Amino acid sequence: MNSIGVHGTAAPGFEAVREEFAAVVAGEDVRAGAQLAVYRHGHQVVDLWAGDAVAGGTLTGIYSSTKGAATLVVALLVQDGTLELDRPIARHWPEFAAVGKERISLRDVLTHRSGVIGVDGGLTVGELADDQVIARRLAGQRPYWRPGAVYGYGGFVTFAIVGEVVRRATGRSLQEHFEQRVRAPHGLDLYLGLPEALEDRYREVLPGLAGPEERAAFWAAVPGPHSITGIGYGLNSTPPLDQVAFLNTRQVRALGQASAGGVGNARGLARMYSAAVFGLDGRAPLLEPGTLGEFAMPHSVGRDLVRGEQGQYALGFEAKGLRYPFLGANAFGHSGSAGSESYADPRSGIAFGYTRRRFSFDWSYPEHDRLAAAVHRAATAA
Length: 382
Fold this sequence. Notes:
- By secondary structure, this protein is α+β, with helices and mostly antiparallel strands.
- The chain has a domain at 61-259 and 278-338: Beta-lactamase.
- It is built from 15 helices and ten strands.
- It has helices at residues 15-25, 66-80, 106-110, 125-128, 131-139, 158-170, 174-186, 212-221, 228-232, 243-246, 250-255, 266-277, 289-296, 320-323, 367-381, and strands at residues 6-10, 34-40, 43-50, 60-63, 190-191, 262-264, 318-319, 332-333, 341-345, 350-356.
- The protein has a seven-stranded antiparallel beta sheet, with helices on both faces. A three-stranded antiparallel beta sheet has the order 4-6-5.
- A hairpin with a 2-residue loop joins strand 2 (34-40) and strand 3 (43-50).
- The longest helix is centred in the first third of the chain and has 15 residues, at 66-80.
- It is globular, with a radius of gyration of 19 Å.
- The two termini are 30 Å apart.
């Protein structure tokens, strides 16, 4: 095992988390950089980083961990009474009713049951950068299955629907709500729209490491571009979506599309979940108990048509209590395809954020299990 310098702090009782993080970043895939931040009951207990040109405040692409930030905005608007989860989307957005979508609700979209996971022919990177452009394309798209019958993940487009509902219901974008109600008041290093002035803190996402034979074997087993899985991951466009290049594109970072366009770091992710559930810096939690209970409750479980057994969802969030059985039943959060992980566990008081710069070539991140378990052991022993 090659050694690599680990920087930052771990509170008394969390020393084993630092040791586990050091073991993780010694792996070849992670040496390019990683960050881990943990809050417990609103107080930071872990703040670690390692890797080339990576510090605690370095920013990188968080991909679908963005969905957690976007869902928090929706939860606040539901809590306010501004949005209704079971109201048909077409009542806000009449054009969305086309080709069999007139009954689809916000709850259907947030639980990945709408069937609207992409568009025939795919979307270019330029189109995928802009939620409003995506929304216009989705308005005319027939669902890929009968809404409500099954569920399947729409990796890059689902929250464009959510964002359009927010914009039409409030007159402001989802990104503006996040900035004004969540990011700025809590000082989060987490952006749905990265200001150009902060570009010098961004470090590009790097491709996964694999030999030609290993890579060829992986892609030979990937479903075709026009399959349900291919559509859900944007592989049906010409050329197929390059996920690594996606957030390395300035336009994507600038607009901060709500499905996968977020930029941040481990501190930002952990602070967001702490602010949502436990409070932060003397502020009350953003979510009231009833709202938290609704959004943390598992909604779609079984087999995801796009992601298979990996897809287990609460309302907008991933159901982390099912992903990590040692957590409480209603733990919730969201991972990202470049290797980020983030969640809150109301039972143990944990708010967890992890990022890494390098993709895994096969989109698997076993260090998530190791780090989550180490944090949970430390928190419950304290």
